[in-house]
Specification:
Blueprint: H1 4-37, E1 54-56, E2 59-61, E3 70-78, E4 99-101, E5 109-115, E6 120-128, E7 138-141, H2 142-148, E8 156-162, H3 164-174, E9 205-207, E10 229-232, E11 238-241, E12 250-252, E13 260-267, H4 270-280, E14 286-293, E15 296-306, H5 309-321, E16 328-331
Parallel strand pairs: 3-7, 4-6
Antiparallel strand pairs: 1-2, 3-8, 4-7, 5-6, 5-8, 6-12, 9-12, 10-11, 13-15, 13-16, 14-15
Signal peptide: 1-21
GO molecular function: lytic endotransglycosylase activity; peptidoglycan binding
Domain SPOR: 254-332
Amino acid sequence: MRHPRAGVGIVLALVSALGLAGCAETEFLVNTAKQAKGADRAGSVGAYKVGSPYQISGVWYYPKEEWDYVETGIASWYGPGFHGRSTANGELFDENDVTAAHRTLPLPSIVRVTNLGNGRSLVVRVNDRGPFAHGRIIDMSRRSAQLLGFERQGTAKVKVEILPEDSRREQAVARGGAPGPVLASASPTEPAAPAPQAVPSPPVQVSRLDAPSGAAAAPAPRPAAATASRSPGAGGTAAVVAGGPPPGTVETVPVSPTDIWVQVGSFENRDNAQRLSVRMRSFGPAGVQRAEVAGRTFHRVRIGPLTEVASADRVLERVIAAGYPGARIVVD
C-alpha cells in the first residue's frame, strides 16, 4: 500500500517541476528579448555618478565635474563582450546605442567626439567608466565607432569636448529632477588644454549613415529646438540636447593632418621642462613645446612625433614604468 504522503510528494514534485519549467521558459524569453533588443530598458535607469579616485595599472584617475574639458588622444571601442551588462552608473550597455565610456567625466555626460582622421563628428552620451588601456582617452560603443568610421581600424585620433549645458540637463534627469535652467558653476583651478587649431568648431556638412547589417539604427535627426529636447539614450534614460544635433547625427568638419605624441609633463618653469626632456631622450626624440593656456605659458615635454598608435603605446608604457604615471598620448 502506498503511503498517503507519497502521493502528496509526487504532486509537489510535479508542481515544482512545472514551476521550474515555467521559470526556465520565462528566463529564456527574457534573454531572447534582450538579445533582440540589446536590453530591457524599462527597468534600467542610470543614476548620476561622479565617483571616488581609482587606480588602473599604477595610474590614478580622479573623477570630477569639468565643464571646460577638452582633450585630444586616441579612442577605442567596445561592444560584444559587454553587451547587456550594467554600466558604471547602473544602465544596461547596448553596443548599438550611441554611448561611450570615460575615466573621469561625471555619468552621464554629453560630449562631442571628432575623428581627426576623417572629420566625422558625433554627439555621444557617456554612461560608463573606461577605457582601461593607458593610451586611450575614450571608449566608444560599437555603433559610435561605426558612425565615426573607425570600427575596422579599432582606434582613431580624436578630439573629445564636453557639452556643458547638455550635460547639466542630462545629469538633472539622472538625479530624478527636470531639466530646468542651467546654473553657472565655478571654473576648475587647473587650466584646460587648448582646443587643437586643426579642428574648427563650425560644421560644414551634415550627413546620415545607415545602420550596418544586424545593428540597430541610430535615432533619426530632428530639427533643432530653442528649448531642451529629449532623444532616446541607453538604459531608458534620455539624452537632453539643448539645440544641436541629437546623438547619432554625424557632422563633417574640416581637419588637418595631426601627429601623435607622448606628453610626459607640463611646466611653467622652462628649466624644469628642459631637464625632464633630457631624461626622456632615451625613450625617443624628446623636446619642449611652448603653449599658451588661459593667459599662462606652459612648457610641455613631449616625445615624438610618432607615426603609429602602436609605437606610441610602446613608448607610453616604458615611460610609465620608468616612474612617470602622468604621461599620456596626445594628438596635435
